[in-house]
Amino acid sequence: MEGLDIIGNIAILKFSRGTSKQEKFKTAREIMKEHKNIISVLEKSERIKGRLRTFKTAFLFGEKTKETLHKENNCIFKLNVEETYFSPRLSNERLEIAKQVKKGEKVLVLFAGIAPYSIVIAKLAKPKIVYSIEINKKACEYARENVQLNRIDNVKIIQGDVKKIIPKLKKEKRQNLKFDRIVMPRPQLKETFLHEAFSITKRGGIINYYGFGKFGQDIVNEVEREAKKAKKKINIIKIKRAGELAPYKFRWRIDFKVR
């Protein structure tokens, strides 16, 4: 077995090539014996792909369900593991960023999925408002339900493409809609979306940007190139390795201030 993620009461296994069906079923049964709360074991049958960040699974053992409730950071999230992107491995990241948020901040979360970052921030910090943008319609449906499940009223869910939504937000002049903080747990795409983020960040605002590669300095260089294009000056606050995706390929978080 190459990997195991437990989301709510569903276990998702990843096997190396050549693993027999017998071995897969045996492992699935062992997982259910070891983790008493697990009701369904699935195999991840393809990589996460595209801007919707979805993947296919194959049923191995237990109940045939792909919908679950997942608890973390004193929050609860409902989701379908196959139709929406959610990583339980980013729980500490969400908590760490929530602890950075100051009282009264206006926060924007891009690529927000079922709204885990948005809800953890709203529930554990004291922001004025959290805007949560996600392109996946199904994820937005769950996000709206999750806002209700967590009994919060300062998260605004917006479904759509970041490149189309942000220009619309910029036109909301009556609301003075510039953000104190932008959180960017972006997919693995070539596009950085930093141009859009810079255009709607307050002077002195913070951006928590996620990038992918072998070295953190490469991601810093990426951020600095985009800042130069946007004619923005920035100060790097923190460079953090926030997870390993493959051998010599890591998720990096770059926290920086826009001056």
Describe this entry's structure for a reader.
- The termini are far apart.
- The protein has seven helices and 13 strands.
- The protein has helices spanning 21-34, 91-100, 116-124, 137-149, 162-170, 194-199, 216-229, and strands spanning 3-7, 10-14, 40-44, 57-62, 67-72, 75-80, 106-110, 129-134, 155-159, 179-184, 201-213, 234-246, 249-258.
- Helix content is 29%, strand content 35%.
- The model has no long low-confidence stretch (mean pLDDT 94).
- The chain folds into two domains: 3-65, GMP Synthetase, Chain A, domain 3, CATH 3.30.300.110; 85-258, Rossmann fold.
- The chain has 259 residues and is an alpha/beta fold.
- It is globular.
- α2 packs across α3 (116-124).
- It has a seven-stranded mixed β-sheet with strand order 9-8-7-10-11-13-12, sandwiched between helices. A four-stranded mixed β-sheet has the order 1-2-3-4.
CATH class of the largest domain: Alpha Beta
Question: Could you tell me how far the N terminus lies from the C terminus, measured between alpha carbons in angstroms?
Answer: 47 Å
Q: Can you tell me the CATH superfamily of the largest domain?
A: Vaccinia Virus protein VP39
What is the CATH architecture term of the largest domain?
A: 3-Layer(aba) Sandwich
Radius of gyration equals 19 Å
Instruction: Please report the total strand number as a whole number.
Output: 13
- Unreliable stretches covering 5 or more consecutive residues: none
H and E order: EEHEEEEHEHEHEHEHEHEE
Q: In which order are the strands of the major sheet placed? A: 9-8-7-10-11-13-12
What is the count of structural domains? 2
What would the average pLDDT be, to the nearest integer?
A: 94
Structural class: alpha/beta
